[in-house]
Design a protein that fits this description.
Layout: H1 2-32, H2 39-61, H3 66-91, H4 101-123, E1 138-141, E2 150-153, H5 154-176, H6 178-188, H7 190-195, H8 200-226, H9 235-246, H10 251-271, H11 273-276, H12 280-295
Antiparallel strand pairs: 1-2
Helix pairs in contact: 1-5, 1-6, 1-8, 1-9, 1-10, 2-3, 2-4, 2-8, 3-8, 5-6, 5-8, 6-8, 9-10, 9-12, 10-12
Length: 309
């Protein structure tokens, strides 16, 4: 039972990180109605900025405190992501208002390659380390219930708590604020939103800024765990089944979908892997997403689209 709980908790914590990355997809889709293939590049770009600024700040400002230097680096990386959001809206999205979804999709593909190249030009292409002071040693919990306790990684617990806090805050933002409601209106119909006085350009800047902060937190956590390297863009591919499962228009769906995928990957690898030769953790999520596409393409919490003619 203790081993099952270890696997379950590991899956839940991994699932929260998947949810955080998937949230970036949901944010952009809710505001523009397009699937943002640039989310992985945004995670990479933000992680590169955070890693390099955390290296440069102690030299530039003669700061020896790790917490302070990381805080300054986070603020500077956040400012960079705000600037990226403004440039994307000014140079790309503003000129594509009311265009077909395929056109916006191709635009995000172009943004992806541009950000990868720009990140390499500005910050380099080596493997960088992000040290945000999270403890990496494991601990044993529930010793009074199970002999020997349940092994839990401290870093995973802290990362999951950060992800959960950010996801909860964004959920409240979308449901309770006028800006959040405006975002949903813009996603439904650009022209109708403009006709009632919603400033489309400002809304797009806001949502790309928020998605940039989500990418920064995601990149910071994944960079702390895996190191910052260009393969980090593939993290976004791990979040694709999450948004398919939860629904492209649902913030709660991103959360639940991430938890289901995270737990499913861990449990399937442990309990089904020996019977299928291993490696099930790599493809389990995509098979589950394929099943949902066949029987419930809008996902668990997504809105069913009905075209009337």
């Amino acid at each position: 039972m203790a081993f099952f709980l270890e696997t379950l908790l590991g899956g839940l914590m991994a699932g929260m990180l998947y949810s955080l990355v998937a949230l970036g997809f949901v944010l952009i889709f809710k505001a523009s109605g397009v699937f943002n293939f640039a989310q992985g590049a945004m995670v990479l770009f933000a992680a590169l900025a955070m890693a390099r600024f955390s290296e440069w700040i102690p030299v530039w400002l003669d700061v020896n405190n790790l917490l302070l230097s990381n805080l300054i680096a986070f603020v500077m990386a956040g400012a960079v992501m705000f600037a990226v959001a403004w440039v994307i809206e000014r140079l790309v999205l503003r000129h594509l208002v009311n265009q077909e979804g395929a056109t916006l999709l191709m635009a995000t593909l172009g943004i992806t390659y541009f950000m990868e190249g720009l990140g390499q030009a500005l910050f380099g292409s080596d493997v960088y380390k992000i040290d945000i002071g999270m403890p990496k040693e494991p601990i044993f919990v529930l010793n009074s219930f199970f002999e020997g306790g349940v092994l839990v990684n401290k870093e995973d617990v802290i990362a999951a708590a950060i992800a959960a806090t950010l996801v909860a805050g964004l959920s409240i933002f979308f449901q309770k604020t006028s800006t959040g409601r405006a975002l949903r209106a813009v996603a439904d119909d650009h022209q109708a939103a403009q006709s009632i006085g919603i400033p489309l350009n400002r809304i797009w800047v806001i949502v790309w800024c928020v998605a940039g902060i989500v990418a920064l937190v995601s990149g910071m956590i994944w960079g702390s765990k895996l190191g910052v390297q260009f393969s980090l863009t593939t993290v976004a591919l791990r979040a694709l089944p999450v948004v398919i499962l939860g629904g492209l228009t649902s913030v709660p769906g991103a959360i639940i979908g991430g938890l289901i995928i995270g737990v499913g990957e861990k449990l399937s690898e442990v309990y089904l892997g020996p019977y299928v030769g291993g490696g099930i953790e790599i493809w389990f999520a995509y098979v589950l997403a394929l099943v949902f596409l066949l029987f419930r393409p809008q996902g668990l919490f997504g809105e069913k689209i009905i075209d009337r003619v």
